[in-house]
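for ur thesis appendix - Flagellar biosynthetic protein fliU. copy paste whatever u need, i formatted it the way the template wanted (i think)
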Amino acid sequence: MIYTYPDYYKKFSCIADKCPDTCCGKWQIVIDDDSLEKYEDYNGEYRDELRRKVNWKEGVFRHGRSGKCAFLRDDMLCDMYIHMGKNSLCTTCREYPRHTEEFENVREISLSLSCPEVARILMNITDKVTFATEEDDEDEVFDDFDYFLYSNLEDIREEILNVIQDRSVDIRSRIERVIQIGASAQRHYDEGDLVMWNECEERDKPEIHGEHEEHILLQKQAMFLIEELELLYDDWEDVLIESQELLFGQGEEAFAGNRKRFDAWWRNHGGCAPHMTLDIFLEQIIVYFISIYLLGAVYDDNISGKVNACVGHAVELYMLLMARWLRNGETLSVDDLIELSYRYSREIEHSDENLEQVEVLDWFGL
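the 3d part is after this line
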């Protein structure tokens, strides 16, 4: 078995009650079968409290009047953990924000950007993210696993990471090349050829839009987030609607001017922090999503859909940050980067429906 993880993986440690937006909040936490059975058999002095706060029919933890997990105390610590110990935690509570993608004899382990502490770590990394590998003697076989396609996808991902982390090239050109690689790989796969990402043709290049067409496209993407995706938090819809108005409410000319000033502010004046340039921010977001989701195409054959979605997430975060910059009076902080990154991730990555939707959207076509 091969295990891979990003180089910042071991930097993470839960900050518990210091977290600005606890994962014990409004999420519905599903209890794994083993933990549920353990709770049913528990006969300690905390038994009555435990039984009252578990929804046994649904296999989830109940929420209190505040809408947060019933075990979350006013001091933001877990009451079950305090009374029953670390081993009492269910799989979700024990492992989050660690996330694992499973392939035959491979486990790709990552940290979810939806955690504020993970977002803080990533938003303070300026070096190119690399990935570590470990092995053990475990062996397994997946039925109908297309190892040949998987191997090709590994090569494609390696090339995409090389392209997006090549800081000698401007970020827009890097992004266009990434989209082209995804389109080329998908075309070759659909034609029954080897997945030859490097044999690109003119038709594989992303369409270059003028300012007017790009304005229409960005509006379309923004409306997709509001109208087509499952909204997990009520106040997230407020963020999207406010952003839509700030970005597009005064017309195309105002949008173009705001965008130029936003880019100039970030590029020429250090932005929200001297260490986090706009190019590095976009690079880190794309690396994050590509590293987690691209290899999943071995299960659904949707190579270009995954590539485009990973790039699309970076574009949407850029737009949300520009809206926040406008709302703040043309300024932005690292805290804004952290907050919008983890909140966006929660809405996308914590919904299977949304993950499927973003991979079938025509992100860059009018």
